[in-house]
Amino acid sequence: MRPLNASQSKPLSGGPSFGFSNRVFRLVWTIAWALLASWTPPAAGRWRALLLQMFGAKIARTAMVRSSARVWYPPFLTMEERTTLGPNVNCYNMAPVVIMSGAIVSQGAELCAGTHDIDDRNLQLVARPIVIGSQAWIAAEAFIGPGVSVGVGAVLGARGVTFQDLEDWTVYIGNPAMPKRKRRSRVAQCAAESFGKREP
User: Which of 48, 78, 134, 156 has a CB 3.0–4.6 Å from the CB of 100, allowing a cystine?
Assistant: First the structure.
């Protein structure tokens, strides 16, 4: 699925940015989610994952998608084991979004895989994939722009905004997001906890 050529489809004059079959698919998906999932309790997470799978998403058994989360195009969503899309997350996946094992996308965050070429007279829509690395955390109301790769164990703080890749095991805050400090790996944390529990 690719955006239509804006010079031909004329979206600035009310034309579509995507083909007819894509628009019909997304309409059916939106209705299905509203009727079958948007009102379901937290305990129905497996059912919501199954519904996403029926519409083409790749969702691991232990992944969790909250009922108020919004997924624009299920075939472009991949969620590995122990991943979460929290309440009111907007997964605007015009290009593939991959959330790797153990990663969390918290409430109100936005994963935006689409933008416009502001130097093009027709504002051509451009879509680029987003990858959230394993054990990363996208905190509440943070924004991830098109084409961003979030490193393993990286953290984007609440309401942080990034249009650039985030390095592994680094905490970022602000708009634009800037590195604040390094984060110890979970392996190191577990080792430290185990050492602390040893008897003298």
Answer: 134
